[in-house]
Amino acid sequence: MILIGENLNVIIKKIGTAMKEKDPRPIQEMAIAEASAGVDYIDINLGPARKGGGELMEWIVKTVQEVVDTPLYLDTINAEAIEAGLRAYKNKKGKAVINSIMARPESMEAKFPLAQKYDAGVVALLWGPSGLPRDANERGVLAAELMQKAMEYGIPNEDIWIDPIITPITSPQSQVQVPGCIEFMKMFKDLQEIAPGIKSTCGLSNVSNGAPNHLRPILNQTYLVMLERYGMSSAIIDAFDEDLKTFAKGKREDLKKLIFRVMDKDQIDLKSLSKEEADYVKTTKILMGQILYSDSWLQM
Amino acid sequence: MAFQIPQITYSGKIKEVTLGKGPKAVTIGGENSYPFHLFEGEMAHPPRIAMEVYDAPPEDWPETALEPFSDVVHDPVAWAKKCIESYGADLVALQLVSTDPNGLNRPSEEAAETAKKVASSIDVPLIVWGSANADKDGDVLRKVAEVCDGMNLIIGPVVEGNYKQVGAGAIGYRHTAIASSPIDINLAKQLNILLGNLGIPDGQILVDPTTGGLGYGIEYTYSVMERDRMAALTQQDERLQFPIICNMAKEVWKTKEAKASAEEAPALGDPRRRGILMEAMTAVVLLLAGADILVMRHPEAIKMVREMISDLMAK
After folding, report:
1. pLDDT digits over B168-178, tens only?
2. Buried b (16+ CB within 10 A) or exposed e, A201-231
């Protein structure tokens, strides 16, 4: 599993302030900390960055590359900021990745040429002209469209990162959307046969958005295992979440097997399990849409 | 080959809840299929209609709604009796609007006395509905529970902000609690779990999904109720297997379409029929989504809906 650190984000107060004041220290410290924590990419999230986005992205890319060689995800809607970042970027240990291109004409036409011109990777976000896809099939259609466009611009398969869009388990549509993402990942396996080398990525922690803070880790960990089963190749995560990294590195084979059994609808007797195992079984059932989410799901 | 009607396989059942005391006690719930899917399962008890009584004379009701009760609006006891004797109400729903801190702000003790007076003078089950101000209801409903000890009233709305206070009253003085959530299936389930953890027996819980009137968000309520029943009946979601109550009349009769006179809205037709039909239509929609109790207002709308229920229940 390739890990992308999410901590250089404008919404984190210390980082947001440093971005505003162009103060390199907090940004460089965070970049070094993320690289030391072992992430494979660092995501630089400017938010919408409507005003002065170009100048800001260029400055951050240079500032970060002064201290680390880790490749970067450039995360903003602003195409001009993306281009400024790509222009300043030096490929030391891998290509920069544009995060993201949506399956909407204006987004594809603005950003695919940049990927071609600067030899960058692209996150192909499955967000279409009418917004969030309703199910796995609609996700499939958008993925095909993005792949087709990427091909027209000569983007190699291994530079395409499909993002199926993870939605919160606490939202009204979660019983359809959260398993829908898993369903799409089954299709993704077929897409890999058509386009060998194609990658995928996801904003993992969104699945637990709105859940009580102390219960977010088990949702994130379980969902990661479920997505990875069908070929999810990377995740944007908190670089300092050691427990999640343990899962990402495949060190909890015991729980992984159990999660797979729930996904395969094996009948599992909760009484035969430890508390930890039972919690992962219950969480998998919630994420599979077999049980309706409530904040007290682990107590049921 | 003969045509086979596709059938849904159910794995759950709505719990039965008995409301009130004595010969006029009412049992609801017990369904093991979707509403009126009598070709697939059973509705052990038909849905019931509770008639509204207000604890203060209504000030903003249109003439059509007021007319049947104009002789009793100053006296909740007489009003409740009229509902039962003249219109055959199975249940009465006392709306304690006068306790609203943003309105008349009547003290909890006074409201509790009114509730006791009404409850003591009727033989059908009594629903007592607060002002939907979580803090004030915490106090009002707690006192209602206490002075009406053992009468098995139905009290609500119980929300996340006051469930401990009101829930303790329901347990201690043996009443049924109405678990109320803001048109959100996950929050509905969560509150039912919390009430269970507090110790309220399953046979003393009803669910209020929060109701919008026809044309004012009823589709959201419909969808949440539908999801509730799907989880309860096909996913064995034990914490959603409770009967549903919809406090709908006040939502219908406050709308512009129900209130506007013939002069104000000539294109909308006869205002009397219009209001009554809007109430009846709202009721039918909620019944089809899975309501077990409807809180209604106009006798003619109620009559129509009763006929509808008996038609749909006929084998």
Report:
1. 999 999 999 99
2. bbbbbbbbeebeeebbbbbbbbbbbbbbbbb
CA distance A42 to A77: 17
Per-residue model confidence (pLDDT) at position A172? 82
Cis status, amide bond into B157, omega within 30 of 0: yes
Chain B residues whose CB is inside 8 A of the A299 CB are: 193, 197
Residue in A292, A295, A299 closest to B231 by CB:
A292
The confidence score (pLDDT) of residue B258 equals: 95
- Strands B17-19 and B26-28 turn out to be antiparallel
Q: Where do the domains of chain A lie?
A: 2-244
Closest residue to B189, CB basis, from A172, A174, A292: A292
What length does chain B have?
Answer: 315
Q: Does A175 touch chain B (CB under 8 A)?
A: yes
Give me the half-sphere count of Cα atoms (radius 13 Å) on the Cβ side of residue B267. Answer: 0
The total of other beta-carbon atoms located within 10 Å of residue A243's CB is 12
Contact assessment for residue B249 and residue B293, using Cβ atoms and an 8 Å cutoff: no
**CATH class name, domain A2-244:** alpha beta
User: Burial letters for B152-184: b for 16+ Cβ neighbours within 10 Å, e otherwise?
Assistant: bbbbbbbbeebbebbbebbbebbbbbbbbbebb
Given CB atoms, is A291 within the 8 Å cutoff of chain B?
A: yes
Question: Which pLDDT score is estimated for A50?
Answer: 85
Number of C-alpha atoms within 13 angstroms, CB side, residue A189? 9
Burial class (CB in 10 A: 0-12, 13-18, 19+), A200: buried
Is residue A197 classed as helix, strand or coil in its secondary structure? Answer: coil
Q: What is the pLDDT of residues A33-58, one digit of tens each?
A: 999 999 999 999 998 888 899 999 99
| Cβ count near A14 (within 10 Å) | 13
Interatomic CA distance for residues B155 and B205, integer angstroms: 10
Could you tell me which of B49, B124, B47 has the C-alpha nearest to residue B302?
A: B49
- DSSP run (H or E) holding A3: strand A2-9
- State in words which class domain B22-310 has: alpha beta
Q: Is the pLDDT of residue B315 over 80?
A: no
Q: How many C-beta atoms surround the C-beta of residue A110 within 10 A?
A: 17
CA of A300: which chain B residue's CA is closest? B193
Q: What is the C-alpha to C-alpha distance for residues B294 and A28, in angstroms, rounded to an integer?
A: 62
Instruction: Check pLDDT > 90 for residue B213.
Output: no
Is the minimum CB–CB distance between A292 and chain B shorter than 8 Å?
yes
Query: Which H helix or E strand runs over B207?
Result: strand B205-208
- Indicate if the pLDDT at residue B1 is higher than 90: no
Q: Residue B17 corresponds to which tokens in the numbers above?
A: 């809840």
Amino acid at A152: E
ipTM score of complex? 0.81
Return the SS3 of B245. strand
Which amino acid does the sequence have at B13? K
Cβ atoms of B33 and B233 within 8 Å: the answer is yes
